[in-house]
Design a protein that fits this description.
The chain is α/β, with parallel strands linked by helices. The protein has 12 helices and 11 strands. It has 2 domains: about 220 residues, Aspartate Aminotransferase, domain 2 (3-Layer(aba) Sandwich); about 120 residues, Aspartate Aminotransferase, domain 1, CATH 3.90.1150.
Length: about 350
């Protein structure tokens, strides 16, 4: 092993600012949802350039709230990619709608607008657009399909698509602030929109105290001021976080030049903020175990890598016809890349990568 310690795949960037922010809330005596949550909502809305935001207790529940805000329920269909974590599918199931899975763009891992177009029926009510790994989906093509877009920006804060900020285009935008995200609060999420009426519907679903009437769909989905304090501190640091990520990605690209690994594709008009640095690995022979073997060898060198999506949704459901998603499962590997990664750790990752994927 080159290093004496294991470099984790993810690690949050927590510093004095976050610790001070949490301490201030603790000393205030108000820990639940309050003025700090409101400040966080305003800060995120300003970042995206939209009317407002509604803080929620998790990104998964924020997806469900977004669907309910649009009135989606039994008898409706929602299009989403198969190559994604389970959260969007679970949200669709909970509102009683039907998830219509589609394939991804082979080169970018993003939801394919062409596949979405083929999947639309008279029952289709919305498209969930997860911008995976820090790269925007093709919002231009998706926006031409005439359906509400729910942008899932859990992994792509700060990215741009043809001059537009990701998260500012869709009817609704959803964020996650889980511990390993671009902007973390330990846990939590948010629904954002340009439409104040949609935001009011989201607030009515988030809490029931003080409402003028009973709402059977309302629940306690509130974020705490403790979480929001971390989120606000992280929001202030987000520009430096993104700069560090892009710098590390540049270093990784240089290290992998001339190797067999295929570095991330960035189409014209889209920018990448590198929530994940996902490489494609060429398959040798049958290739079924190549990725797992590679993960083991890299871990033996002190570099913890991961499959960026554990399993495509269509495989859970026993469906066929998703060749690009299945290729991604066989070939995609995510390397450690985050602001808290030190220069020495980055060197260790680069050395391990070059040794693993040099031409043989």
């Amino acid at each position: 092993m080159i290093g004496t310690t294991m470099i984790p795949h993810s690690r949050p960037a927590i510093d004095r600012q976050e610790i001070r922010a949490v301490t201030d809330v603790l000393q205030s005596g108000h820990l639940a949802q309050g003025t700090v949550v409101e400040r966080f909502e305003r800060g995120m809305a300003a970042y995206f350039g939209v009317a407002g935001g509604v803080a929620i207790n998790s990104g998964t529940m924020a997806l469900e709230v977004a669907l309910r805000v649009l009135g989606i329920g039994p008898g409706d269909e929602v299009v989403l990619p198969s190559y994604v974590c389970a959260a969007p599918w679970q949200a669709v199931q909970r509102v009683g709608a039907q998830a219509c899975l589609v394939d991804i763009e082979p080169e970018t891992f993003q939801i394919s607008a062409d596949a979405v177009r083929m999947a639309i029926t008279s029952k289709t009510r919305a498209i969930i657009v997860p911008h995976l790994f820090g790269l925007p989906a093709d919002l231009t093509a998706l926006g031409q399909l005439g359906l509400p877009l729910i942008e899932d920006c859990a992994q792509t804060l700060g990215a741009m698509e043809h001059g537009r900020a990701v998260g500012s285009v869709g009817t609704l935008t959803v964020c996650s602030f889980y511990a390993n995200k671009l902007l973390c609060a330990g846990e939590g999420g948010m629904v954002l929109s340009r439409d104040p009426a949609l935001l009011e519907r989201a607030r009515a679903l988030r809490e029931y105290d003080g409402a003028s009437s009973l709402n059977p769909l309302a629940s306690n989905l509130k974020m705490t001021d403790l979480q929001a304090a971390i989120g606000l501190a992280q929001l202030e640091r987000l520009p430096e976080f993104l700069e560090r990520r892009v710098s590390l990605a540049r270093r990784y690209r240089e290290a992998l030049a001339g190797t067999t690994a295929i570095v991330p594709t960035v189409p014209v008009g889209r920018s990448h903020v590198y929530y994940r640095f996902v490489v494609r690995l060429p398959q040798r022979g049958s290739g079924s175990s190549n990725l797992d073997e590679c993960l083991g060898r890299l871990e033996g060198r002190g570099v913890q890598c991961r499959k960026p999506v554990f399993r495509s949704l269509h495989r859970y459901l026993g469906l066929d016809g998703f060749p690009a998603s299945e290729a991604a499962e066989r070939e995609a590997l995510s390397l450690p890349l985050y602001p808290a990664l030190t220069d020495d750790e980055a060197t260790q990752v680069c050395l391990a990568m070059r040794d693993e994927w040099q031409h043989k």
